[in-house]
Amino acid sequence: MSFGEITTLKQVKFLLLFIFYCIYSVYSDDKDLVEAVESVPNTGSPSCPREGSFIQYINNAKRNGLLIGGGKDFDGNIMKDAYFFDLNRNLWNIAPTTNLDVLPDRYMCVSFCVEGIIYIWGGLSSRGLSNELISYDFERISWKVVPPSGNIPCERYAACKAETKSHVYIFGGQGSHGLLNDIWELDKRTFLWSCLR
Q1: Angstrom distance (rounded) from CA 102 to CA 120
Q2: How confident is the model at residue 65 (pLDDT cuts 50, 70, 90)?
Q3: Which of 24, 68, 72, 188 has its CA 20 to 30 A from that of 121?
Q4: Taking a C-beta distance cutoff of 8 angstroms, is the pair 171, 181 a contact?
């Protein structure tokens, strides 16, 4: 089953369970997350069915949940929204924001979390390919464009990501001239980019 073939509620539920299973596999030592994944109800206002969205886990003293947004809807429109799924209360909510103009519309972007702030990088937007780094601060309930630093990667979507405590690594993706095979490193402390290959 490909993302383009997801047309029934049963398929959407299967996809959501698969996503939660993947998170469960990674964070199976987190008791709160394990219990939440095993009993996910349909409460609150869930996001609409979509493909290519970002999903990022956040767990700190104030929050334990998933920020989900972007992607494409059934009509192929790139979504400009974000939802928070609270794993403690098993509840969907629209992620509040004070600046909708910066809220990213992104398809197949990269996401990561640093000290409770969610970052979205790259992806395809309604304006074309992107290499912008945008942050979402839960405390300020606002999105912000993070100024680039260093030699930044070219615009792309569908890049792969890996991360350590101190760095994020980006590999490949689809650029304006085709598939890419470069590797980039982003320092989480300084937000300085460097090309490794």
Answers
A1: 12
A2: very high
A3: 24
A4: yes
Confidence category of residue 18, pLDDT binned at 50, 70, 90: low
Evaluate whether 104 touches 143 at the Cβ level (below 8 Å): yes
- In Å, what is the CA distance from 16 to each residue of 10, 77, 88? 10, 20, 17
pTM for the model: 0.76
CATH number corresponding to 3-152:
2.120.10.80
Average confidence (pLDDT) over 123-134 = 95
Q: Where are the domains of the chain?
A: 3-152
pLDDT over 90 percentage in the chain: 66
In this prediction, residue 197 has a pLDDT band, given cuts at 50, 70 and 90, of confident
Identify the DSSP state of 51: B
- E strands along the chain, which residues? 54-59, 64-69, 82-86, 91-94, 110-114, 117-121, 124-125, 128-129, 133-137, 142-146, 160-163, 167-175, 178-187, 193-195
Residue 170: which of 154, 150, 148 has the closest Cα? 154
**Encoded tokens for 190:** 């300084």
